[in-house]
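Example 3.
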Amino acid sequence: MTFFWVGLYLVALLAIGFASHRFFRGTGEDFFLASRSLGPLVLLMSLVGTHMTAFSILGASGEAYHRGIGIFALMASSSAVVIPAVFLFVGVPLWAAGKRHGYLTQVAYFRDRWGSEALARTLFVVLAVLLVPYLLIGIKGAGLTLFEMSAGRLPTWAGSGLMCAVVLAYVLGGGMRGTAWVNVFQTVIFLALGGATFAVIVSRGGGLGTWMARLGSERPELLTWGGEIRPLELASYLLIPLSAAMFPHLFTHWLTARRAETFRLSIVAYPLCVALVWLPSVLLGVMGRLDVPNLAGPASSGIVVQMIGRYAPGAVGSVLAAGVFAAVMASLDSQALAMGNMFTQDILARMRAGRAPVSERQQVAAGRLFIVAIVLVALLLSELVDRSIFKLGVWCFTGFCGLFPLAVAALYWRRSTAAGALACVVATAGSWAYFLARGWSDPAYSVGGTGLLAVAPVMLLSTAALVLVSFLTAPPEPERLAKFFGRMAP
Amino acid sequence: MTTAVAARRGPQPVRWLLYGALVALALLHQDGWLADDARLVLGLPVSLLYHALYCVAAALLMAGLVRFAWPRHLVDEAGTAEPPPPSPSGGG
């Protein structure tokens, strides 16, 4: 019975993915971008589903378990204000450029914006490397969820492998349309079941008042953030959501919008969705510390599933755990699809330039093969990496933040040059690798022990590289500027 | 930017007010005055409630930005016409 609802849920995902295949038009644009046809509600649900991952459910609760309610301020409320602003000031202009010039991928846009093949290839490699920790979050989360649900009987690799198999099946079958439909279903499931999970656990524990009174007497430090989080760390976390501007899967989702107005609902509703997902996660994490007090390090990422097992055993628990599983799965599909898209369009097609052209069907087949390969690599790594889901996420987002100046310069800075853009990417990769090497083994690492996260110097260095090298190199040609800024406001 | 475009993006003072509100909201994220306050308000730790309401404020601000600072000039340029067929580079 433990796995009945999870099994039923996985079958439903496959059915949705295969149903969407009936609408497949056989073109690359349809497979990767659903022919730019998604409406406001589907866009909102797929953006939320894509962005609310194992990081938001398992990572948030696991980190709150150790550090208290301040985790909501670190990631949730900062995302609530920054990410919709990124949608408005970066997402909508990029959608407009994509529609105007027919881009299918993020790399294609940046290649054309600065006219540089070297930039495009370097950016692809850096994006692929940065995306691996993000893939790991989902894969590890799935393995951990099923491990906890089975009380340790199902090893993590089996749960992770099952999730990868299901995701690959509907992504390869349904492409972006299948992924978007599945994301809508997943988002509805995890928002509804997430609320139900919270309500059941709170109610069976005596109500919110009882839980808070217990926390106040047994673990008062979890009700404040002053003892655990330094002001510079809180300030640094306001930068982390800027990473959304450079996520390949979000870029792809932006391009799927039917019209610019499609974004409006996502921009306004996103902060509320963030609160709806993160508030229960953080509260369940701190409440879990009372009942399961001795989890060390990454083991705390399974606290929500443990609480479900404790307060809702049997069929109810199985249904609720299926909701956790839904959230965990919702981003792996889009990430894999976005990478397959870029590999097909930006690497394979360019390598074959001058030879026989690749047909649309060959493009889709190559993209599918690449998706399988990258998911298998991530699956293998998930068994080797033992960091907590929250820390993995923050390191991944730090790298994407380093590329944020690239998006801003592409859209708003005429004087930026290809060499400057390339310097920005190289500076991001170098500084991210440097700080990762220094901080990987220390979960509490901050720059100079000040509380400042590595994201701040990484962004500073990448911005400096972009600006300095742009000014040291010749200005971009007027024709290129006219193409991208000709009819834009100065 | 043409006057017509400016008019369609909303009155300029309102837009700048909203941009200012966005900066102010970002600054208000630092709720240092609640850092060590363990009081419960409406059943929640006060800092957690503050940040939950902060999310509501962010949604209201976004509604204002969407209404008065919408980049309609970009949207008009992208238009409703079908995009050109993608080249292998995806570029135009």
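Chain A has a mean pLDDT of 84. Chain A touches chain B through 76 residues (CB under 8 Å).
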